[in-house]
Amino acid sequence: FDKDRAVLCLETEEHALARGAEIYCELAGFGASCDAHHITAPHPEGRGLAAAISQALKTGGVSPDEIDYVNAHGTSTPYNDRFETMALKKALGDAAYDCKISSTKSVMGHTLAGAGGLEAAVCAKVIKTGVIPPTVNLDNPDIEDGCDLDYTPRESVTMDRVRAAISDNLGFGGHNAALVFREHVKP
């Protein structure tokens, strides 16, 4: 089954404007790391993902307080949820409490190799429309275990403006990646 699809067209602003393209957002920054903690489990303190997110913010020239949305890796396992929350808090500081977070895997499932591309497309759409997709089937985040951020449970939320968004993903062997997108400002 291969029903979840997305197409991302990456091009220079000059090229997009010349052809009259509708620009959804800008890919501002990227970051990657490998914590090599375990073949299937991320580092328990979120070090690798925090490093990838911090690098993406730095290469994109985006500050943590500009992030309005995070499309989390969000596989809905207690270990991963706790680890990913810690990583977001490390990378974003207090700004982690001010942004909306959701996992679109809760709707699409885990598409494995396709997950990063699909979730990048979701971030572009969120910035363009202001509609934050929900984390479906989330009733009670484990606040006592540190999962105390705004995970957008059950219902989508519409914001007036989404300035910047992060898509983070993890891979087997401790691979971590993050992309930072920001709204396109017409010249």
UniProtKB/TrEMBL annotation:
**Some GO term, biological process aspect, for this entry: which one?**
fatty acid biosynthetic process
Pfam families xref list: Ketoacyl-synt_C
Q: Which domain of life is it from?
A: Eukaryota
| EC code | 2.3.1.41
Instruction: Quote the InterPro entries the UniProt record gives.
Output: Beta-ketoacyl_synthase, Ketoacyl_synth_C, PKS_Beta-ketoAc_synthase_dom, Thiolase-like
Q: Which SUPFAM superfamilies match?
A: Thiolase-like
Which GO molecular function entries does the Swiss-Prot or TrEMBL record give? 3-oxoacyl-[acyl-carrier-protein] synthase activity
- Ketosynthase family 3 (KS3) domain: which residues? 1-183
Keywords on record: Transferase
Which PANTHER family does this chain map to? 3-OXOACYL-[ACYL-CARRIER-PROTEIN] SYNTHASE, POLYKETIDE SYNTHASE-RELATED
Protein name, entry field: beta-ketoacyl-[acyl-carrier-protein] synthase I
